[in-house]
Amino acid sequence: RLLEQAGKLAHEAGMRLYLAGGSVRDILLGCPHQDWDLVVEGDGLSLAEALGEAWGGKSVLHDRFLTARIELDGETHFDIATARTETYPRPGALPVVTPASMAEDLWRRDFAANALAVALGPDDWGDVLDPTGGIEDLRRRLIRALHDRSFWDDATRIVRAVGFEQRLGFSIERHTEAWIREAAAHGALQTVSTERLGEAILPLFIIKILFRQIFYIFIVY
User: Rg (Cα) of the chain, in Å, rounded?
Assistant: First the structure.
């Protein structure tokens, strides 16, 4: 019901809204979740404020990254972002973001299985965008990076790849594993702060994924 309302509100404002990323992945895999990732072709910050007001929720805006969060009842969250591309000034740096199309937004993501979107507008409700072959990767249960510089752009993706592999019971695609090994061997993990690396590692411990990620973290250092 809330997704339908959000799609209509975006449509009335001349914007196109999508459910995207991990939310789509988890729905297709039948995994429970409380967070909903929305991406809008348009002004995501203004849409977040409008939805927060319409739903009686709390909106938190992050202007630098064109993202926002709406907190409704303490458990359910809607993360809203403007569709964007990212450039990295140097390995491990925070990205510089630029508004873009939904298809371009999907291509800048970490893994193909997370590069999925479903349209929420009244005219295109339920249409699926899958430019990178993510649905086939879900069928094959693969974690596949989208380009060979992915783990240099953001080395925390190394940790996330292992986390997805263990939590979802997937396998890391062979080229992706080679890119991980190469990036790790040449110091990619040293390009990100301890805080960012810790934020990526912590959820793995919370869900008791202990062995392989520890192996990776210590080996790459």
Answer: 18
